[in-house]
Design a protein that fits this description.
The protein is mainly alpha-helical. The protein has helices at 4-22, 25-37, 45-58, 62-74, 79-93, 98-114. Helices cover 79% and strands 0% of the residues. α3 (45-58) crosses α5 (79-93) and α4 packs parallel to α6.
Length: 115
């Protein structure tokens, strides 16, 4: 059975490959900057993914939420830790974040079902 996460991952991979074909310097630089932001530095990459999840939730980007939740699960964050981070997003973002909180919880359930 194909889940919405499978479809999301396939679409993201396909479109990132297509964007790479464009060969535009500014776009390449931004993608490199984005990747580099999540590498270990003063903060470890694992923590940065959790920060990315919170920012994505506050910004109400479900694709970003899915991506960062996938990375957070791979990095070993527990459900309780993720819920705590999502609570921060809810407090910062307010009630308008609630639909995206629902999306995040559903995504986390799908990710755990894969394990």
């Amino acid at each position: 059975m194909t889940t919405r996460l499978d479809e999301f991952r396939a679409y993201r991979e396909r479109m990132n490959a297509r964007i790479a074909e464009i060969d535009h310097l500014g776009i390449k630089r931004f993608f490199s900057l984005d990747s580099g932001a999540y590498r270990d530095g003063a903060l470890d990459g694992r923590t940065k993914e959790l920060l990315g999840l919170v920012a994505s939730t506050v910004l109400r980007c479900n694709d970003c939420i899915d991506y960062h939740l996938d990375q957070c699960v791979k990095a070993g964050w527990s459900d309780e830790e993720i819920y705590d981070a999502l609570n921060v997003a809810l407090v910062v973002g307010g009630s308008i974040v609630i639909p995206h909180l629902r999306h995040a919880v559903e995504t986390l359930d799908l990710l755990r079902a894969e394990q």
